[in-house]
Write a structure and sequence with these properties.
alpha+beta; five-stranded antiparallel β-sheet; globular; three-stranded antiparallel β-sheet; 363 residues
């Protein structure tokens, strides 16, 4: 096997990035096509039943004198059932209790319990679990994403100003200069405001994810390959580029504008609920881009783009791949968190053994 030369490495990396981009695009399109054949219409019907909206197709077939009033009890059933289920899970305070073992330490167990309670509170777990569990009762499945959120940013802070080393030497006693006594500590001269990098967030995060924004591999029951569709601002993309988390794709995204338009699988129910896509003028860093976040095993060569061809390059490793606006590769990295598992938790209501489970609207 011929080793790639240094001049060939950029071409090899670019080729592999293009392959990975096509792989993600194919995954999304294949999942979307499979899902839209059955589930999109079913979810539209579930949404209409929950919001007591009469089926517009059936309404169009009726005469003017015939009633088109929705008389279902879906919303009542969903709310009553969900309230009981949610209270069962979320009512205990704290939600997670720890107890020392036979040779354990009671104080250590209590500290662990308090730490878990603090992180769940910071993550707003109960709020996000409320939405995900209600969606589970309604559609049959709900989804919640759990991850560690760590954000650094530049902030203006009042910082102490001390003597410089030269000033310390000028004011040091002779004994210190001769090595017969320790050098004095720098004296505080005052304070001034400076821009410093600080940790803004460093805690557990929970995020409710709508069922329409989760794209599984068709006909799966394992849910070990998932694409999460989300929207983030251009400003957030730039911040991640500057700290090295994303590839520098500013030239590809700078002039791309998506606005707040609804995705095609959401347009029908959004319009029926009265939402209207009203585009407005957005600042550059306020623009929002659709992000595809794929969690699945991929060849190592699609993470380490300069690795030579061979068995090691083809080895499958758990990974997270991000694509912006469907056309630009943002990031590709090994998923070393949560033991390489997908950080999106699926909450079923009535398990069916199929890809999607059964909810109240299906009964």
């Amino acid at each position: 096997m011929v080793e790639p030369t240094l001049t060939a490495l950029p071409d090899l990396a670019a080729e592999r990035k293009a392959e990975l981009l096509r792989y993600v695009q194919s995954f999304y399109r294949r999942s979307w096509d499979w899902r839209s054949q059955k589930f999109h219409d079913m979810w539209d019907r579930d949404d209409r039943d929950y919001h007591s909206i009469y089926d517009p197709q059936r309404a169009a077939e009726k005469e003017d004198w015939q009633e088109i009033i929705h008389t279902g009890m879906v919303v009542t059933n969903v709310e009553v059932i969900h309230s009981q289920l949610y209270k069962t899970v979320a009512a205990p305070n704290p939600m997670v209790e720890t107890e020392a073992g036979p040779a354990g330490d009671e104080l250590q167990a209590r500290l662990i319990q308090d730490c878990v309670a603090y992180q769940m509170d910071k993550a707003k777990f109960k709020v996000n679990f409320y939405h995900a569990s209600k969606e589970s009762v309604k559609y049959g499945d709900g989804f919640i994403k759990l991850y560690w959120e760590k954000v650094e940013d530049t902030r203006r802070r009042r910082m102490p100003v001390e003597q410089t080393p030269e000033q310390v030497l000028d004011t040091a006693p002779m004994d210190s200069l001769m090595g017969q006594a320790p050098m004095p500590s720098p004296r505080l001269q005052g304070f001034q405001f400076q821009n410093v990098k600080v940790m803004v967030k460093d805690h557990l995060a929970a995020k409710y994810v709508h069922i329409r924004d989760i794209f599984p591999e068709p006909n799966t029951t394992a849910w070990d390959k998932i694409l999460h569709r989300d929207k983030i601002t251009y400003g957030e993309i730039v911040r991640n580029i500057l700290n090295g988390s994303f590839f520098d794709v500013r030239g590809d995204l700078e002039n791309v504008t998506e606005g707040e338009k609804f995705e095609s699988d959401l347009q029908t129910i959004k319009y029926e609920l009265g939402y209207v896509d009203e585009p407005r003028k957005l600042s550059k860093f306020e623009k929002r881009h659709t992000i595809w976040e794929l969690w699945c095993p991929i060849p190592r060569k699609w993470i380490q783009f300069d690795i030579p061809e061979g068995d090691q390059a083809e080895e499958l490793v758990p990974a997270k791949v991000m694509v912006a606006s469907g056309t630009v590769l943002l990031a590709s990295e090994e998923n070393d968190k949560f033991d390489g598992e997908v950080p999106i938790l699926k909450i079923p209501y009535i398990p069916t053994g199929e890809t999607y489970d059964m909810g109240v609207c299906d009964l």
